[in-house]
Write a structure and sequence with these properties.
This protein is α/β, with parallel strands linked by helices. The chain has a single domain, classed as Rossmann fold (3-Layer(aba) Sandwich), CATH 3.40.50.150. It has helices at 11-18, 32-53, 79-84, 96-108, 143-152, 169-182, 198-207, and strands at 67-71, 88-93, 114-117, 128-134, 154-165, 210-221, 225-229, 235-242. An eight-stranded mixed β-sheet has the order 3-2-1-4-5-8-6-7. Strand 4, helix 5 and strand 5 form a beta-alpha-beta unit. The radius of gyration is 17 Å and the shape is globular.
């Protein structure tokens, strides 16, 4: 008999993000920081997709024929552009309010996205060509079980892309002291002690049978905004495949 998957949802965290659902799509609202992060994250994903599946970089739909899941999707801020890149997308989030907002926004845009209220453990038996989870692992109750769940959902030959804040003095200063202190990020969003450094995340991925093939920093430039860079002190992204 297959071992039951451990629940990874932290209900307190889900409630916090559920309260932000109403203005998730407002670029000047409580999720403004995610709107600012999105172009850099999408650029990283697009490069990883082209490298993994031999894309030419010019196609508008490099994910055509592929399935994808965005775990911790919120109201679909990343899920929707991935669907527009051609993927048959599923979005999963622990806050029912977020799923409601995501479904309404996708419907208004004519996008057929399968949104699921729950966690990665609520997709038993399903697998996807691409698994993405951005700024989520620092909010779950059991990071190791969460990574195992992501790995279990990855189809053979698939691609996993994760991002998360690094646990450094800079991330504490930028995201909590300044970000939450000034209201740029909703107060109570982060617990710095739960941030995961790159070596810890790579170890969790290895334990789940994954191999990291790329790791890059996500840093802030006053002139350009958030950019992909070698500097991992604030935030970072990893691309992984089955070992």
């Amino acid at each position: 008999m297959a071992k039951a998957m451990i629940a990874t949802i932290d209900r307190k965290e889900a409630e916090h993000f559920g309260k932000l659902a109403a203005d998730w799509w407002d670029p000047k609202g409580s999720s403004a920081m995610l709107h600012r992060l999105n172009p850099a994250r999408l650029g990283y994903i697009r490069a990883a997709v082209d490298a993994h599946w031999g894309g030419d970089g010019a196609s508008f739909t490099p994910l055509a024929g592929k399935t994808g899941v965005d775990v911790g999707c919120g109201a679909g801020l990343l899920t929707e552009p991935l669907a527009r890149l051609g993927a048959a997308m599923t979005g999963v989030d622990a806050a029912a309010e977020n799923i409601g907002a995501a479904r309404a926004h996708a419907a208004a845009g004519g996008l057929a996205i399968d949104y699921v209220d729950g966690g990665i453990e609520d997709l038993p038996g399903r697998s996807f060509d691409m698994v993405v989870s951005m700024e989520v692992i620092e909010h779950v109750s059991d990071p190791a079980a969460f990574v195992r769940g992501l790995a279990n959902a990855l189809a053979p030959g698939g691609l996993m892309i994760l991002s998360t804040p690094n646990r450094t003095p800079l991330s504490r200063l930028a995201m909590i002291t300044i970000g939450e202190g000034t209201g740029a990020i909703p107060k109570g969003t982060h617990d710095w002690r739960r941030f995961i450094n790159p070596e810890e995340l790579e170890a969790l991925l290895a334990e789940a049978g994954m191999r990291v093939i790329d790791r890059q920093g996500l840093s802030f430039s006053p002139a350009r905004g958030f950019v992909i860079s070698p500097n991992e002190a604030l935030n970072y992204l990893v691309t992984a495949v089955r070992a």
